[in-house]
Structures are given as structure tokens and as C-alpha cells.
Amino acid sequence: xxxxxxxxxxxxxxxxxxxxxxxxxxxxxxxxxxxxxxxxxxxxxxxxxxxxxxxxxxxxxxxxxxxxxxxxxxxxxxxxxxxxxxxxxxxxxxxxxxxxxxxxxxxxxxxxxxxxxxxxxxxxxxxxxxxxxxxxxxxxxxxxxxxxxxxxxxxxxxxxxxxxxxxxxxxxxxxxxxxxxxxxxxxxxxxxxxxxxxxxxxxxxxxxxxxxxxxxxxxxxxxxxxxxxxxxxxxxxxxxxxxxxxxxxxxxxxxxxxxxxxxxxxxxxxxxxxxxxxxxxxxxxxxxxxxxxxxx
Length: 296
Known about the structure:
- The protein has helices spanning 3-98, 103-147, 171-174, 184-198, 224-241, 267-273, 285-291; strands at residues 156-161, 164-170, 205-210, 250-256, 275-280.
- The chain is an alpha+beta fold.
- The radius of gyration is 34 Å and the shape is extended.
């Protein structure tokens, strides 16, 4: 081979080697960028999980404090009852010894003291029912948060107030402006809520429609009363027809613009007021049964 040909082949070989190395470098650089992006995404997910964990811990602590306060109040009542029972027993004995009252009157007082014992039992039963209801509500809130935890807080909010669980869903997730047809995305959310509610067959709930104070501009709807009612019934029908919720467990109500949670004078306030609320009602029948007179 001539020297010139040898030099030419050498130059071509080096050029090809340089091209291959450059491609590998670009590939590795692209892989590094992709891994860096995935790392940042995982960091964000970890931060969101930490925030959610902190929120749940605070709610649990608040419920535990409330339960402790109730238990303390019941303990005080029990002490008062014990004190009254002791005093009444001593007083009755003194009255019988002095023959101040008749036998029938003494029997009447004795029955009154027995009623105090019955009330003591009533308080104990009531305490058990309250603790049971609190534990059910806490479990229900945890299940709901777990089922729909992929939504951001602007679209959905779950809270407990005075023993009632509230699930607020914003209208931008459920409906188009001025409409009452439920969006496809919202149907997915309602399906998750329905799954949790179907696992609690003894719980009843109400679906409430809420609007802002801007007058409705539609020939089919007269005002915000109509809009709020139609939105509530739309949600109820989906829970019944598509997800199999027993209709006897549900109620639909329209609140119109008259129960705002924010100022209607601002855009943000009006957006907060446009919502659909699922009110999960406490099991009050158990408490009413305790108040009914016992049949002899």
C-alpha cells in the first residue's frame, strides 16, 4: 500500500471513531438528563406525601383531644352521680329511722335512686356510642382521603365538624359554567367516593348544590335555586345509576347562593362558593333509641 493511501485510510478510521464516540456521549447525556428529571419528580412526590401525612396526623390529634374532653366530662358526671347516690342513701336511712315518712314514700324515694342507677348505665352506653361514632368517622375520613388523594386541595376538601363528615367538590371539577351535566373527569371522582360509601351501608348522606350570587343566564333555568338543585340531583343520579348506591340512603338539596363559605365580592370567593357538598350524616337513630322509654 502506498503511503498516501495508508494515510487516507488512517484519517477515515479516526473520523469514524470520533463520530461513534460523539453519539455515545450524546446518548449518555440524554440518559443523565432523563434520570435527573425523574429524580426531581420523585422528590416532589415525597414532599407531597410528607405534607399529607402531617395533615392527617394533625386531624387525628384534634379528634383524640376532642374525645379526651368528652371522656373527662363523662367522668365528672359519674362522680356527681356517685356523690348523689351516697347522700340519697344516707338521707333515706335517716328518714326511715325517724319514721318521718311513710313506707310508700320511702319506696318512691328508693325507686328514684334506682333511676339514678339507670341514668348511670345510660351515660355509659352513650359514651360507648360516642366513641364508636368517632372511630367510624375517623376511619371514613381516612378512607376518603386515601381513595381520592390524587386530587389537589383546590378541587376537593374533606373535613369533620361536630360529628358530621363533609366532602366539598368544586364546580370547576364537576360542571361546566352554568351547566349541570357532570363531566367525565368528575364521574371518576364520584366513583371513588361511591366505593367508600358502599363499604359503609348503614351511613346515609345528602348531596347539596351551592352557587355564587351571580344571576344565572339560561333559558332552561330560572335562577340559582334551579341550578343548585339540578346539580345535586345530577350527582345523585350518577351515584345511583352508574355506581349502585341505594337511593334510599341519599337525599338531594339545593342551597343556591345562601350558604357561602367565602366573600362573593372577589373572583376567588365566588369560585369557592360554587361547590357540591356531600354531607355524611351521623347515625342519630342509636341515640334516639336510648331516649325511648323501656317497655316493661
